[in-house]
């Protein structure tokens, strides 16, 4: 699921595009920001659909084996049990999933070899043979083989990695979130009644998170000159052209949060942007950003510009 750090990263990416563009209207970037969140959900649905594709390939495999020139007894009795897996059956009936498949026009027809290659690997695994040997089926037991397909086959497949990297620009950034979403789906699907099984939510509280995300973007842009000046005052000994744009954006975002988001603790804001800098900027950025923000924070406190509404939020 997307947490606040993920959302800050989404805002950072859009702000970077804004800064590099000649177009300075906020609305297109606000739309792009919300679309980047929606893309995470779309990738999630693509992954779920691939689980179904792999399970359904058992039918094609059984037909091909039965139609061999000289099929063996084993070929004539190839199992399609996984196609009726309780998790897969429930997912196929899930209204949220079906609506999302329709919305995003999900189809693996563009590369039918993907499901085949995964199924062939699955068929040779000990885990699959164990599943086929089950005499009693519960959704908990049936989920085990689907978890195996997802964790050990899909996520480990270079071919899948390439497909998602080509289709989605932020696949590598969002991959951990997608794993968490699928893991949450496994947890949510615990009932034999499909109506009781729910897909994972993209955010724990989307209405609140959406407001945070959009306001952060708008205010960072709206107060660009003012907060850039705060940074310039503390970096007089630095060549402005040598300060990475990503560092500048992260500091402006942090200042925006410190001043305009009264319920977010100071410590949380400082830590979040320093941690993000470790992943998205230069090796020395975290210490540089930390030092500059500490000085700006001290000035903001002295000037009474920090208006935090909860106990301990200024610490």
Please characterize this protein's 3D structure.
By secondary structure, the chain is mainly α. The chain has helices spanning 4-20, 26-66, 73-76, 86-93, 95-104, 113-123, 126-132, 139-154, 158-167, 171-188, 206-222, 224-234, 245-260, 266-280, 285-302. It has two domains: 4-196, no CATH class; 223-302, N-utilizing Substance Protein B Homolog, Chain A. It has 15 helices and no strands. Helix 2 (26-66) packs across helix 6 (113-123). The relative contact order is 0.12. The model has no long low-confidence stretch (mean pLDDT 93).
Summarize the structure in short.
The chain has 15 helices and no strands.
* Overall 3D form: elongated
Structural class: mainly alpha
Residue-averaged pLDDT: 93
Give a short account of the largest sheet.
none
Q: What number of structural domains do the residues give?
A: 2
Strand content: under 5%
Q: Helix count?
A: 15
Poorly predicted runs of 5 or more residues: none
């Amino acid at each position: 699921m997307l947490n606040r750090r993920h959302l800050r990263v989404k805002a950072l990416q859009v702000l970077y595009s804004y800064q590099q563009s000649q177009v300075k209207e906020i609305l297109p970037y606000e739309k792009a920001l919300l679309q980047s969140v929606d893309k995470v959900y779309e990738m999630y649905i693509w992954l779920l659909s691939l689980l179904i594709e792999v399970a359904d390939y058992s039918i094609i495999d059984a037909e091909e084996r039965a139609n061999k020139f000289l099929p063996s007894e084993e070929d004539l009795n190839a199992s399609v049990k996984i196609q009726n897996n309780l998790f897969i059956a429930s997912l196929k009936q899930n209204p949220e999933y079906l609506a999302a498949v329709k919305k995003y026009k999900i189809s693996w027809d563009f590369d039918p070899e993907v499901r085949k290659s995964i199924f062939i690997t699955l068929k040779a695994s000990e885990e699959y043979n164990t599943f086929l040997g089950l005499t009693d089926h519960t959704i908990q037991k049936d989920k085990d083989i689907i978890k195996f397909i997802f964790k050990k086959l899909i996520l480990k497949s270079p071919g899948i990695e390439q497909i998602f990297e080509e289709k989605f620009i932020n696949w590598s950034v969002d991959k951990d979130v997608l794993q968490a979403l699928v893991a949450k789906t496994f947890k949510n699907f615990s009932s034999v009644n499909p109506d009781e099984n729910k897909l994972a939510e993209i955010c724990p509280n989307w209405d609140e998170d959406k407001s945070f995300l959009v306001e952060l973007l708008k205010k960072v842009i709206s107060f660009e000159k003012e907060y850039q000046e705060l940074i310039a005052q503390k970096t007089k000994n630095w060549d402005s052209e040598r300060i990475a744009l990503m560092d500048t954006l992260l500091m402006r975002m942090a200042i925006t949060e410190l001043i305009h988001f009264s319920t977010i603790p100071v410590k949380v804001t400082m830590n979040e942007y320093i941690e993000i800098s470790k992943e998205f900027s230069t090796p020395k950025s975290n210490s540089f950003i930390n030092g500059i923000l500490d000085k700006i924070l001290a000035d903001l406190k002295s000037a009474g510009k920090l208006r935090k509404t909860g106990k301990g939020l200024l610490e």
